[in-house]
Automatic annotation (TrEMBL):
Residues 1-35 are annotated as: Disordered. The chain crosses the membrane at residues 129-146, 152-171, 183-202, 208-229, 241-258. Signal peptide: none annotated. Residues 112-256 form the Yip1 domain. This is Protein YIP. GO terms for cellular component: Golgi membrane; trans-Golgi network. GO terms for biological process: endoplasmic reticulum to Golgi vesicle-mediated transport; vesicle fusion with Golgi apparatus. Residues 13-31 have a biased composition (Polar residues). It is found in: Golgi apparatus membrane; Membrane. It comes from Thamnidium elegans.
């Protein structure tokens, strides 16, 4: 069959054929030695060496959190923003994302240490539990140093006390209070009891001085917490009713320093 023996002409490798008729464009001036013809591309080189060098050459300068920061100057790309210490302009600090605000912890701790000062009703708007967890950890650590391992009792009394006071306050108040805010107030007002457990490491509390310090700590914690609850829930006339269950709560913690 003569038709079957005819050679097949390749569009790419046969120089004798006009390949432009297949593509409808002018050939490029670059032609390989083996008959390959290359056609010019309409796409530019977006990843040239100069572009990469400028993009990764130097980190951004200045504080990216500043309002007048110029994002268009230099090579402040997302690469250095991810590994730099400045971060992005609208990015909150890492400790704030983790729920740790040392300024609020300091403010609430000073409010507990000075219970005779008027407590603002907005002091517990942010119900953080970082401070209470820190105080409970210190309380258990001081008891452990005084050879009293009461971590189980601390956990049990803490959970049952918070649940009980949460239910009592919601029955007494028309506005109500959430569980996390109740735990935050009780945890921050535990600070005088933490100080008492610190004294128990170096002093014995089974005497008159220890008993006096224990009573003072219970009254201190009760007065601070009842003042915060009364201010937040607007229960100024029922402060004594709020102080009674709260005082029993802190008295259970005080017993742990003796036994």
């Amino acid at each position: 069959n003569m038709a079957a023996r005819q050679p097949v002409h390749s569009v790419l490798f046969d120089n004798s054929q006009d390949t432009n008729q297949y593509y409808g464009q002018q050939p490029s001036s670059q032609t390989g030695g083996d008959g390959l013809q290359f056609y010019a591309s309409t796409y530019g080189d977006q990843y040239s060496a100069n572009t990469n060098a400028n993009y990764y050459s130097s980190p951004p300068t200045g504080d990216m959190r500043a309002s007048n920061y110029d994002y268009t100057s230099g090579s402040s790309g997302s690469f250095w923003s991810a590994f730099g210490t400045g971060g992005f302009a609208d990015e909150p600090p890492l400790l704030e994302e983790l729920g740790l605000n040392f300024g609020h912890i300091k403010t609430k701790s000073l409010a507990v240490l000075n219970p005779f000062r008027t407590v603002p009703h907005t002091i517990m708007d942010d119900t953080d539990l970082a401070g209470p967890l820190l105080f409970i950890f210190l309380f258990g650590t001081f008891l452990l140093l005084s050879r009293k391992a009461h971590f189980g009792y601390i956990y049990g009394v803490g959970v049952m006390g918070v649940v009980s006071i949460y239910l009592i306050l919601n029955m007494m108040s028309e506005n109500g209070i959430d569980f996390s805010r109740t735990a935050s107030v009780l945890g921050y007002c535990l600070l005088p009891m933490v100080m008492l457990s610190g004294f128990s490491v170096v002093l014995k509390l089974d005497n008159i001085i220890g008993t006096a310090l224990t009573v003072i700590s219970i009254l201190w914690c009760t007065y601070s917490s009842s003042g915060m609850f009364s201010s937040v829930l607007h229960l100024n006339e029922q402060r004594l009713l709020v102080a009674y269950p709260v005082g029993l709560f802190y008295a259970c913690f005080a017993l742990m320093t003796f036994f």
